[in-house]
Design goal:
This protein is mainly beta and 486 residues long. It has a domain of 75 residues: Immunoglobulin-like (Sandwich), CATH 2.60.40. 4% of the residues lie in helices and 63% in strands. The protein has one helix and 32 strands. The protein has a 24-stranded antiparallel β-barrel. A four-stranded antiparallel sheet has the order 29-28-31-32, with no helix packed on it. The chain has a three-stranded antiparallel sheet with strand order 26-27-30, with no helix packed on it. The longest helix has 20 residues. It starts with a helix and ends with a strand.
């Protein structure tokens, strides 16, 4: 009977998905993702929603709103939102997250800022968190990168936040040197002395590469730096073996013991005739028996198109001296090479075999875009797989206003006037508004107000195009509009 229910649930979801999307206008942009928590075979409760807004043609600015269904109020209640700003090359420059705090409104949480050079190489990366006591952003860490003409990272500087000056200060740095083949041949580590304000040298590593006749690295020797007399000493050696196609078959690591190289690590690989890796076996040094021993290995299988269909984790059982399967991942695809099934199984070696931990099924529109994802999990008490939750993907051509066609998603109409506006902007809404955000075209919030009765005074703002985002009193996004300020 349970199997019949399962089949009915899949058919129900597929029919529901077909009807739901039959009238959709589809483009390449995801407007929203709606999830449902599964309660019974033939019924689901609304679980959550993610709404995306992309506010220009090259997706430089993206806004994501996330909420959960509140059965008591019959509304989607906000719990977080995200703002992402990218440059014209698509590199993400700003990421900011806020959390909804109910009666207290939106509260900032964390923010990441990045910058890039003309080749889209990262120049710096700043991470900030919201200081609740100071009600301001506080830095956590910064990384800054410098490169040579070949794009190699020659210098990486790390910064920490100085609470006294409320600014960044040096933390550590790494200097790299490369050979003509862009291989890293030297690494020097430094730490900043905050009391004396100078760099302290900590350690250094040099790498020496020996190549085979095919130009592949056959041996890599590592040297450490003795800080007492600033001389380099042999630290470790790694040797590599390849097949005729350049695939690595074996990697062996050696340590220096009484001026002799002693094997202390090893990895092995196997491949099929198409060059796909079928087996990876790492070894671990057993200090009790002073030898290399099996620990685990990973096995892979592929279909005729080279797509991975199976991935297994096996562990070595010292009692029976054989490999035991402990976890298996299975994958299935459609004719367009899109993933249709992802199944994770746990193998109970002391019980009755395998049971599924989790499963995800992927349904697509005729355009190849995501339509529905069905997530299932293992129920330990019932000893069976059960439907857990599902996601519906919606698409639209509108850059700003989002329409999903579901009656529990906020779709309240509101209007702004006069347009263009010179000083006072008026708001008329079907739902009582609770908060208004004014953003510039870079996605920065330049004004925010929780009291908009009688209009919003914009007389002090410069002329130009702005975005107005309106929320209701429960933190539900009512929509976004463009306005022209004279």
């Amino acid at each position: 009977m349970k199997q019949i229910y399962w089949i009915f649930a899949i058919v129900f979801l597929f029919v529901f998905e077909t009807n739901l999307f039959s009238q959709q206008v589809v483009t390449s942009r995801t407007d929203s993702i709606v999830s449902y928590n599964f309660t019974t075979v033939a019924d689901s409760t609304k679980g959550g929603i993610r709404i995306f807004e992309r506010l220009d043609s090259i997706w430089q600015y993206e806004y994501e709103w996330m909420g959960n269904w509140n059965a008591d109020s019959g509304k989607m209640i906000a719990f977080a939102d995200y703002k992402r700003i990218a440059d014209q090359a698509g590199n993400q420059k700003v990421y900011t997250m806020r959390r909804w705090k109910g009666a207290y409104g939106w509260e900032p949480y964390d923010s990441v800022w990045r910058d890039y050079d003309a080749n889209s190489m990262l120049l710096f990366w700043d991470i900030y968190s919201w200081n609740y006591n100071q009600q301001d952003w506080t830095g956590e860490r910064r990384s800054e990168y410098f490169r040579d003409g070949a794009g190699n990272d020659t210098l990486m500087v790390g910064y920490a936040w100085d609470w006294d000056t409320n600014d960044w200060r040096y933390g550590n740095k790494l200097r790299n040197r490369f050979d003509q083949e862009n291989r890293n041949v030297e690494e020097l580590y430094y730490e900043w002395n905050w009391n004396e304000n100078f760099w302290i040298f900590l350690s250094g590593v040099q790498s020496e590469y020996i190549l085979n006749a095919s130009g592949e690295v056959e041996t890599k020797n590592l040297y450490g730096l003795d800080l007492t007399d600033t001389t380099w000493y042999p630290a470790s050696r790694t040797e590599y073996i390849y097949d005729d196609h350049g695939h690595m078959l074996k990697e062996e690591g050696y340590r220096l013991v009484e001026e002799e190289w002693e094997l202390n690590s090893k990895q092995e690989w196997e491949y099929d005739v198409d060059g796909n890796m079928t087996l990876h076996t790492p070894y671990q040094w057993d200090y009790q028996y002073d030898s290399l021993v099996y620990v685990s290995r990973y096995a892979f299988a592929y279909d005729g198109h080279g797509r991975k269909t199976l991935q297994e984790l096996q562990i070595w059982d010292t009692d029976i001296e054989d490999w035991l399967l402990v976890r298996r991942f299975s994958f299935a695809y459609n004719a367009n090479d899109a993933l249709t099934l992802e199944d994770e199984e746990y193998w109970d070696v002391h019980g009755d075999g395998a049971y599924s931990l989790r499963r995800t099924e992927y349904l697509y529109l005729t355009t190849g875009q995501d339509s529905v994802r069905i997530h299932s999990q293992w129920n330990e008490s019932a000893q069976e797989i059960y439907l857990s939750w599902k996601e519906f993907f919606y698409y639209g051509e509108e850059d700003i206003k989002i329409s999903t066609g579901l009656n529990y998603i906020p779709a309240a109409e509101f209007s702004l006037y006069p347009i263009p506006v010179h000083d006072l902007l008026m708001i008329e809404s079907e739902v009582a508004p609770g908060r208004l955000d004014l953003l510039d075209l870079n996605g920065r919030i330049v004004y925010s107000s929780g009291s908009i009765e009688g209009g919003v005074d914009l007389s002090s703002f410069e002329s130009g195009i702005y975005l107005v985002r309106l929320w209701d009193k429960d933190g539900i996004l009512l929509g976004t509009r463009k306005i022209l300020k004279e």
